[in-house]
Each structure stands twice: as C-alpha cells, then as structure tokens.
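Why this split exists: single-chain examples teach little about how molecules sit against one another. For that reason, every record in the complexes split bundles all components of an assembly together and asks for one structure covering all of them. Below is a record exactly as it appears in the raw files.
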Amino acid sequence: MSVWRSIARRFIRRVISSIPAIIGVVIVTFILMRVLPSDPAVFFTSSSVTAGQAEIDSMRKKMGLDQPLPLQLGMYLRDVARGDLGNSLTTNQPVVKDLLRRLPASLELTFVALVLALATSIPLGVLSALRSGSLIDHAVRFLCTIGVCMPTFVSGLMLVYVFYYLLGIAPDPTGRIDIFVASPPDITGFLLIDLALIGDWAGWRSALDNIILPACTMALFVLAPLTRMTRASMLGVLGSEFVRTAKSVGLHSWRIVVVYALRNALLPVLTMAGVVFSTMLGANVLVEKVFSWPGVASYALDALMASDYAPVQGFVLLMAFIFVLVNLTVDVLYGMADPRVSIE
Amino acid sequence: MTGGLSIDDLQVVFSTRNGPVEALRGISLELGDGETLGVVGESGSGKSVTAYAITRLLETSGKIVNGRIVYKGSDITRLSESDLRTMRGASISMIFQNPRAALNPIRAIGLQIADAIRAHTAVTAKEARAEALDLLKSVMIRDPEARLDAYPHELSGGMCQRVMIAIAIACRPHLLIADEPTTGLDVTTQKTVMTLLARITAERNMSMILITHDLGLAAQYCDKIVVMENGRIVERGTTRTIFLNPQHPYTRRLVAASPTPTSTIDDLARVAEAEQTTHALSARPAAKPYSITDGAILLQIRNLTKRYSSNIIAVNDVSFDIPVGGSVGLVGESGSGKTTVSRMISRLIEPSDGKIIFDSKDIGAIPARVFHSVAERRDIQLVFQDPDGSLNPRFSVFDCIADPLRKLEKLRNGKELRERVRETAARAGLADNLLSRFPHQLSGGQKARVGIARAISIRPRLLVLDEPTAALDVSVQAIILNLLDRLRREDNMAFLFVSHDLNVVRMMCERVVVMRLGKVEEIGGSSLFGNPQSPYTRSLLDAIPHFDPNGQQIKALPKANEYSR
Amino acid sequence: MSSTLSHAVWVLRGNTITTCAIFGVFCLCIFALFAPWLTPFNPLATDVANALQPPNARHVFGTDQLGRDILSRLILATRLDLIIAASAVVLSFAIGSLIGSFCGYLGGWIDRIVGRIVDVIMAFPLFVLAMAMVAVLGNSVQNIIIATAFINLPIYIRFARAEVNVKRDMGWVEAARASGHSDLSVTVRYLLPNIMPAMTVQISLNLGWAIINAAGLSFLGLGVVAPTPEWGIMVAEGARFITAGQWWLVAFPGLALMLTVLCFNLMGDGLRDILDPRMRT
C-alpha cells in the first residue's frame, strides 16, 4: 500500500510543480500573440474598405487593446482561469466550444496512431535486439534511418497516391467518415467508440477506413524513434549484469527475455512514448491538412491564416495542457513500473 | 577425479575490432569435491574469462576454440543450450562483482530467488516463496520476511551480495564460482560476506572457485591457488606453498607487491626496481626521520563540517593538523566523509562550518569559486582516484602536465615550458615519447603517473591524494606508491593521503585519522596499527585479509563448527 | 590538426556509408552554390502548354501545373532550404550550447530558472510554436530562420546541460580547477570541447530536422511565398494533383527532402566516430 501512497504523493507533487509551467505557457502565449503581431484591430476592420481610424479605435476598445499590457495580461489570466478563451472572430463561437467539439477527432487520430506505432515498433525493436547483427536487424535499422527522414506531409501524400489512386482500397482523404454514412450520435466524440456503442458497424467500418491512412502516416513518423529506443534499451538490458545473473541460474530463455529484459527495457520506451505523443499532437497540423481531418490543429491553422488569434492561443494552451497531462500519466505509470523512483 | 571439475588445455579467443585476442592460452586445472580454489591474477590475466567459460556465459564475441571442461563426467564445452540451462544454477552457479547491478532492479528479491528455485524444481509460487524465505535466513539477512518484498536499491551492497548468494545456492549446486565477490565492498562487509561464503560452502560440502585480485583474500579462504598471467596459469599449488615459496617470478613479484601488515615502502621499492629498470630512477634520498612534534604546522583543520541539507551531515566537526612535509592518512569506509574532507581542503567545495588554516591563513573563508586566483592554489594540488576519469580526453599528456604551468606559473608556450614539462614528466617516470599521446593510449599506471606529474609540476606544498591507487593492480600500485614517497622526500611535500586501505596508509603516512560516519573516530601515529584505541579501528584492522609471509599460521579453510555458534 | 585529418581518412576508408553521406552533402552544397548554372530550364518560366507532363526525356522529373521544369526548381530550391536550415541550426547551437553548458556547470538557481524556462518552451508543441511565430512575425525567410532557431534552442540548452552535468564531476574538471582555471575557463576550454562530439551529432541530426520543419511550414503556406522554388511549397502545390494520380509533383521534392535529411543524419553518425579522440589509435 505504501507504493500507492508514494505514487499519490508523487502525483500531487508533479501536479503542483506543473502549475508554473502552465502559467508560463499562458504568459508566453499572451506575449507572442499580443505584443508581436501587427494590430489585429486593423486586420478586422480592414475588411471594409472604408474603415477609418475611428473604427479601428472602437475595435481596439472592444478587444481591450487600449488597456496597458500588464492589465491586459491580468484580464487574460483571469479569463483563462475561468475557462474563457475568448471568441473566434471567424466562426463567431466561443473558442472553448470549438476546441472541445474538434478535440476528439485529433485525439482519436493520435491515439490510433500511437497504438499502431507501439504495436509495430516494440516487436520490431525487440526482434532486432535479440537478433542483433542479423539480416532482420539490418533491415529494421535501415527502415528506421529512412523513417526519420520522411516528412509526414510527403509520406501522407504518397500513401494517398498508392492506396487511394493506384490500389483504390482507401477512401478519398476528406474527413473522418464517408459522407453517405449517417452522422453518428455525439457520445464521446470518438467515432470508433460511438459507432460501436450504437452498433452501426457499416459506419464503424467507414470510420476505420478513413482513419487508417492518416494514422499510418503519423505512426510512420514516430516509428523510427520508438523502434530505435526499444532496440537500444533492449540491447542494453540484454547485456546487463542482472540478465547474466538470470542466465547463470538457468532460467528459461523466454522468461529471461520477457520478465527480466523486456520489462526493464520498456521503462525508457514508456518515457519516450510520452514525448512521442506530444510530438504527434504537433505534427497533427500537417496530417490534418493533408487528410482534411476536422481536428483542432486544422482549426487553429485556419484561424492562424485569418489572423484570428484567440483560437490559436486556445489551441496552444490546449496542447500545453495535454502535454502536461500526458507527462503526468507517464510519470504515474513509470512510478508503478519502477520501484526505484519512489525514493528520490 | 571423482565428479569434480577438470579443465584441460582450455583456449578462449575474443574477436575484437583489432582482430582476435587470445584471452586464455591453454589452461588446465582440477578441482576436487569440497575444495576451494583461488584464481588470482591482475587485470587482463584471464581469471574472469575462466569463470565465464566454465558456465559458458562468455560474451558473444568470446569463443572456446580448444580444450575440455569436464564436470561430473560430461564435457561442458559440448553441452547443448538446454543442457547448459539445466546445469546452470542446479550444479554450477555463480556470484558476481557489483552485487547490486547483478540483481534485477525492478523485481522484488523474493521473486528473484523464487525464479531461481522454479527454474529447476516444479514447485508452486507459494512453496517457492517459503523456500526463498529459508534461503534468506540461511544467508543471515536481518528481518527476512520483510526483505522478501524489498527491491535491490533498498538494500546495502553487502545485503545484495547475500541475496546473490541465496540465489546462487537456491538449487543446491555443487560448485560455486565467485567472481571478485567482495570487490567494491567495505572491508568489514567483505569479511562478513566471505565468512558467510566459507561457512555455506563448508556446510553444504560445495566446492568453490574464488576469483580475486586480492592475494590476502585468496590466502585466507582457499585450499589451493592458481596464479594467472596473460591467459596462462604460471604457478599452482597449495596456498601455503604459493605464499611461502613462490617459484615463478610473476608470483614472486605479486606476493612482494601486496601490502601486508608488516611490509614497508622499501619492500615495495624492490618491486618497483625489479619492474621498472627502464626508468633510471634517481637514487633515493636517505629517509628523513619525521617527527610530528617538531616542525611547523602547514595545515590546520578546525571543526570542519559539511551539511548538504538540514539532516544530511557528510562531515561533522573534524579537526586535525598536517605538519610541513608530513604525511597524514585519512581512512574510513564508504560514507565516512573522507573524500568530502579532502575536497573541502582542496577548495573544490565549500565547507559549511569550520576553518581550514593553511600557513596561518584561513583559506576556508575564500569561496571555492574564486580560489583559482589565490596564491594558495599553487600550494595545494590534487591527485585523483580514477586515472581514466581524471585526464581530459582531449588533452595530450604534454597539455595535461603543462596546463597548471600555463595557468598558475603563467608560462607561455616555448622552450621554458617544454623544459619544465619534460623535467616533471621525467620525475614522474614518464618517457619523452609518451608526451604526445592521448589518455586513451596509455595504460592505467601511465595515466596515474600523468595525474601525479600534473599535480607536482608547480611544486605544491600540500598534495591531496584521493585513493590514488585504488583502481590499479597491486604491482602497479607498488610502483606508484614508491614514486609518490620518493617525490615527497625530494620536494618536502606534505601529503593528505585518503584511502580505504589501511596497509597502504600505514606505509605512506606517519599519522592516521580514522573517520566513521562523518566524524573522527581516532587519530594516532603508526602505533595505532599495533594498538588501536577505538573498537572501530580494531574491527577495520581485523577485517583485512592477509597472509603471513613468515609462515607460522596461514588460516585454513574455516570448518563449519567454527561458525556454528 | 593533420592527425585529425589522417584519422578522418582512416575512419572514412572503413565506412562507406559515411563517405557516401559526406559526398551527398558535398553535392548538395554544389547545387546550392552553382544552382543558376546547373538548371536545365529556367525554374521560374511558366509554359502552360507543357503543364503537368509526367517525367520524360526532356523534363526528367516532369513539369508542374504551370509547366515549370521540376528538376530545375528542385536544384534552385536546394540553396534556400540549406540556407534556412544551416543558419537556424548555427544560431541555436551557438546560443543554446553556451547557455546550456554554463548553466549545467554552475548549477544552482540560475540553472533551475533556465531549466524551468526550457521546460515551458518544450511544453509547447514545437512545430505549432514555430507556426505561430512565423504567422505573427510575418512571412519571410528571415522569420522562418528565427522561428526554427527558436524551437531548436531548448534542445541544445537541454542537451548541453545534460552533457555538462555528466562531465562536471569528472576528475579532469576538478583537476582543471585545481590547475587554476576559473569557472568560465573550465566551461569554454574543457567542457565545451568535450561535449562537441555529442553536439556535432546533434547538429547534423538537427540540420535534417530543421529542413523538415522549414519545409513543413512552407507546406502550410507559412514562410516562403509561392513562386519561389522551395521543396515544401512544391509538395503543397502538388498535393492537389495527387488524387488525380499526378505523383511526380509530390514525389520528387519529397524525395529531395528525404535524401537531404538522410545525408545529414548519416553524416552525423559518421562524424561522431571521427571526432571522438578515443577512436584514434
């Protein structure tokens, strides 16, 4: 039980220590968006050709841009604390509402991609470590070297070319679900879960078809670092002294690999998976654009192109928040997996 | 040979980047039931390779190319992988150096012992746990029920080695191979672990191969000894004959170089001269008699304290003096704070409290950060423990030695600098042609010499030596100690000699400070070794394994009844 | 110095892959330097009559939607992409490694504060951060460089900090202090050269990453503006045609990106061997 208590203590400590990071992110976002840009008021009034200085000024007042900066920051912090990220000037909706509506699409894509990546990279990494120096090992390492060099937007487009145009087995890259399928109920927002819940298997199949290519694109992007890490840490553990001990008492080789080597080797992979998850959230911007995926990243990108900064701010904050959350989760999992971290 | 181990002309070759390396060049040995065999030798002699060849646990680059290892009638070199698995643990098992790394860090030790049991016997998890508990009791671990669920990092090094022993004997093997089982452990821990090993092997009538670099350890716990050099066995015999009457020159050198409770620096000098004929060492100045009462005091340590946080006190109220040209030994086990004291005196870290008075100036008050610009920086120099880690890998030997000259004597590149570096290198026994080499191209002994040359190049008045020979083989250690002693006499340097090895300190120092848990336990002259006042010092002295070269009483294998109190 | 050179030759002789990678980087530099003389066609000249031609004898890599020769555009784009990546990496390396190694060596509160700031920056999805910066600063090559340098900065700071932290307690660092070196001198003369091999690998990997990032920004329409040939934009322009099967618009700039990054990555691994004095025999 003391294990759980120490994990809980660790969790609370990490939550508290991540508060400054979150506040820092809010401030940096604020500075980035308010201080650097050309006057947003000018942008939003300039849509009408006749906009004069008076209109710009009234717009500035409306947006609170006439206040001194620290005051603006204070107001902004207060709003963020309340969960008010402002309104999007392009959709005329509260940013929070927009983001929450689109978040499940991004998360679903990222999760599916992460599961795909882990399910491929861990066996590959383990295999190439166990057969180090063999043909398999060289092939895996070659794939990894190529993998890190492939920009997501290129690999995504090439996948579309092969599986949609050449082979015709993938749906066209325009969203989460076939337009002919009835729109699913909004239960969790995760289409694969929602459609399974209501038993609409045709729709489920269509959602799966649609998510496979973008998810593969993202998985390809992180496959290389994950496989490399698994291989390296597995090799390290296999060469370690405690594995030698396990051999010296005559344990079965599969038991050595699974219980002694793999469990230890997965610890750094776990940390890596957290980092990878955050990287993927960032890389979403490109993948969502290639596949017209209606996620938060494409939302933020559209807003950015329109110099509509509230959604961008909201998006960056959301990403940072998710990042902190993911780190916390990884930390707790790590604490459960490795008894050494409980004493600090 | 009835069921014992017999090795015949065993050859092992490692394939490396630079081509094949012969690690074992045909060794043969026999071991009877219940016997304990010591395999001694210095690094690179192939003693560990022998151990791993017997259990076929060599790294993948190592191959047995010739020879037979016959155990209980079957040739281990020809066993299949599954036969090997049956053999390991059940009839031959091993314990290793660095016990903490030898245990799985994220698996409870009870489970690790149970794994070993269940690898060879069909028992339930519950039965295995009960058996693991019995094993923990038999290796005398305190509070064994609670320890079953502990992880290795929660145990001390000595405890981990006991757990390792429990794992090794879990399936009642007949042969135990111990590869440097106590290297890295404190001397008192070493004694308890070795006593336990001797008792368990005697009780269970197991044979044991003890692989060690420590001749004293081998002498104390083994019946027979083989001496290895360069992958060959150069001498073999009973412990008594090996130590009383060594025949092979290498064995003789090894025996002579190993510090004993009675050896002096002059004994080591003979080893040094025998080995280093190439370096024409200057004649030793006649040994000056040192007296700690007369002569000025160079360094006064008063109430020195180092706190890392409110509850961690590494050094607690330490006071002692070092006379001009005197040598003070600072001994203690790990965690005694001896290294922290030496680092504070060298002004690398700040003391929390107390005074460091050098030449009647309180240098402890000068922040470590600005000490590099103070005149006393020249007077206090250091020699570090690890010869590998103490040389900048990107500096040539010349640059290493020239660095303090450039910095502290403001010598610019030129003839004068070259002369000084060459002279210093020669004094430290480094040939001219080594000056352009990089640290990774040097042997351990040469690296140690560079570290010493660097420290003495600006002729400091106090040399702080932090375990200067701990990482070296005994024969190299003898040479280095001899060199240090000579340099000290030539330059009238004072030494602060930090070491865990009481025998070395006894040879090198006139005065000894014994530390324990951050405090001074005892301060005394050389009489301290004959008549220690504190019980702790006595237990340290008693724990040193040794052989008596005069041959009256070499300790035989302890019999079970001696321990069944 | 000559020993370094001969060592490099020795390493390269045994390592075909690194040699190829270095040769590849050399070729890229040649393309970048002499692009205007190497292009078979004017990279900017449109020829609508010959638009969207698949690879053929005349246009080896085909033509794009405006009939421009893709090969010529690829060659010219090398210059821009290399300049962006190199200047961004040099900038962030110079600043980041200095800050990082000094913080790592000094420790204490400065280190903690810098560590915190780096954590905050790393908490952003870095690509999004770069996106936001370019959008905010304005679309220009200079701003892409600044944004790319900025998102690389925390990586170098962290890396240098971690490396120095490991090396700080080694004997030779303390020996340097005992030899009379100040903290600054220890950092610059001892620690920085010793973390260089690890840093060089990082630089080389980073160059690849910076190119991908810059191309990604252009792909989204940030940064380099349309008629200028740049690999990311070329992919973006070709993206519309991929569902119609006109693959060469995407494939060739994609391939150029990939090969460039591959060369830098492989060169990084090779450089590590050359720069490591322990490898010298």
